[in-house]
Structures are given as C-alpha cells and as structure tokens.
Amino acid sequence: MNYMFLLLVTFKIIKKKLTKIQEAMGLQTSHTASKQKVQPILKSMEEASDHKANPSSYESWMVRHPSALRHFDRLMKGATGKRIVVFLDYDGTLSPIVNNPDRAFMSDEMRAVVCEVAKCFPTAIISGRSRDKVKAFVKLSNVYYAGSHGMDIMAPAKPVVTSSNGKHDNTALNTTDDGVPFQPAKKFLPAIREILTVLETKIRDIQGARVEDNGFSISVHFRQVQEENYGILEEMVKSVLENFPDFCLNEGKKVLEIRPSIKWNKGHALEYFLDTLGLSSSSNILPVYIGDDRTDEDAFKVIHSRGQGYPIIVSSTPRDTQALYSLRDPSEVLIFLSRLAKWRKISCSSRSLNFG
Fold first, then answer.
1. Is residue 291, in this structure, part of any structural domain at all?
2. Residue partners of 71: CB distance under 8 A and separation at least 6
3. In angstroms, how far is CA 98 from the centroid of its own chain?
4. Domain limit, last residue, from 237, 260, 283
5. Where does the source fall among the domains of life (predicted)?
6. One domain, residues 176 and 247
7. Do 251 and 136 belong to one domain?
C-alpha cells in the first residue's frame, strides 16, 4: 500500500515537472489549453498576422501568390506595349505599421523611389487616411492622392493626353495644378463630425485608444490598448453607431474603421482615376496596385474583373486575398518600385536607340 502511495506521489511530481518544462518551451497540454480565455472579436486575422507565420505555410501560400520580385522579369514581359498605371496604399506599404499612427513616416529613400516611378507612370496613392494627412506624409507633387478609402479624391481636371492618337506623356505630372476634388460622401460630413465628438468622449477612459479624423471616415486605433479592453472598446464604438444607421464598422490592422454606408471603396477610386486620366477605355492599360490592407481587396477585385493588371499584396503571413502576387514588406515594395522605374527608363532608352 505504501509502495503504491509513493508511486502515485512520484508520478504526480514527474507530471508537474513535465508541465513546467512544456510551459517553458512554449507548449501547452490540452488541459491548459482548455482553460485559455476566449479571444475577443478584435483578435482578428489581421492581428494574428502581426506574429511570424510558419515558414512552410508561408512558402506554400506563395505558390498561389508568388513574389513580384522573383517574377519581375515575367511581369515586365507581360507589360511590354502596355500603359502602366501605378496605385499604392500608404500604411504598411510605403511606410511600416507603427504604434503611433501620427508617426507613420515614409523613408527618404522610399519617397525618392515613388517620385521616380511617378515620373515614368501616372501614380496615385489611395489611403484610408485623410487626403491632407497622407499628402503631408508623402510630400510629392507628381502623384495623385485619394483619402478616406477613396472617398476624397483630388483628380486631374482633364485627361493626361498629349496627342491626337491618344498617347500619354510619361513626364512628371504636377498634381498641384488644376486639381478637381471628388467627394461622394460629402453629405455625411455633419454626421461624421458628430460621431467624432461622441467617440472621443466615450472612449477617453480606455488607455491607448486613439480616434483619428480621416475626413470622410473615422479610425479608432487600438494597437496600444490592453488586450483585455479590446472587447470593451468594440462595444463602445458599436453603441455609438447605433444612433447612426447610415454608417458601417469595418476592421483593419489594430484599427476599427467607421465609414458611410455607400457603394464606394478603393476599387471605385481606382476606376475613377483611370476614367479621369482618360485611360478607362484603352485596351492596353495595365494597372499595378500594391497594398497590404483588407480594404485594398476591393481594388484587387476590380483588376481581376478587368482581366488585365497586377494586384500585389504586401504581407509576411498567409492570408486570403484576391492578389495575384505578393511582396513581404515595405522594404520589398521599395525594391520592386525601384526596379519598375529602372525597367521603364531602360525600355525607353532601347526604343530611342532603335529609332535613332
């Protein structure tokens, strides 16, 4: 009997030590896992993407969404004879995702590369930020800007056509001249101002929560909020919107987006730019769209529907996407854009030599 008792005690001691070893190694028993707190709704796919993915799963994902860098030559072969138009997201694409959204600065190197690309191709930046804010970050006059997920666009006053045969100039465009604003959600501005006032009062006691005025949309950032407050914050935001039925709530990377419930998104903004640039009816137009956010999927879908173009997602983890190609992070975006500008200059030089 004593022997059995000692054996049982020994077994329990060994089991306890094994459990501690497993926890130290980052492992959990099924019993421990069953006691884990259920994650709030805000513990979303985008949040999970902040963690490094299993390398093998990422590689298998890249079979379906291959690297735009590795396949650059193939992409440019398909672009021969086409009119490329470049569309770029800002946060997470041209700049890294940071804890403080007011400090999402792009590097001088990235700014110089985007400027070179815009000298070669019509280029537009479509961001969830306010148009003025993203323009202040980018600081370039030869690109077009769309803020609030495409609900605030400064487009050219006339198509960028330089000759009777419909060919377009590749020199730098000065977008500070003759711009025409397009704001399909303008009638919602009074309600947006009211929501902002109510939200700022409602969530001010949640440490780390930030409300950002994007002009025609509102962002509630929770990257610096304690995890146990995620659900509380979400319910607060939802309670505010109960009094504003014309608005919807969407989720991005550690951010809740409040937007008017209208049929307008980044995909519509892409089409609007092509139309105002005088390019929508051309059969040789090849849009290149690079973005990392869920809202960029609308633009990817538009390119799919056109049957021509390169939708490129920026992601270091596997995720559902309509993109055909991928880039891992803003550093790869920098390399891709640099190669794109160089490719254009080389192809123009070769053409000049052939006609010389």
1. yes
2. 325
3. 13
4. 260
5. Eukaryota
6. no
7. no
Amino acid at 129: R
User: What is the pLDDT averaged over residues 243-259?
Assistant: 93
Candidates 303, 306, 241, 219; CA nearest to 266 is 303
Task: Give the Cα separation of 269 and 147 in Å (integer).
Answer: 10
Stretch 91-104: mean pLDDT? 94
Q: Which residues lie below 8 Å from residue 244, measured CB to CB, with a gap of 6+? A: 191, 194, 195
Beta strands in 173-324 (DSSP E): 179-182, 210-213, 218-221, 247-252, 255-260, 285-291, 310-314
Confidence of residue 319 (pLDDT cuts 50, 70, 90): very high
- State the DSSP code for 248: E
> What pTM value is reported for the model?
0.80
Phi and psi, residue 276, nearest 5°: -70, -20
Q: What is the largest CA-CA distance in the chain?
A: 103
Q: What residues contact 158, with CB distance under 8 A and at least 6 apart?
A: 178, 278
Paired sense of beta strands 255-260 and 247-252, if any: antiparallel
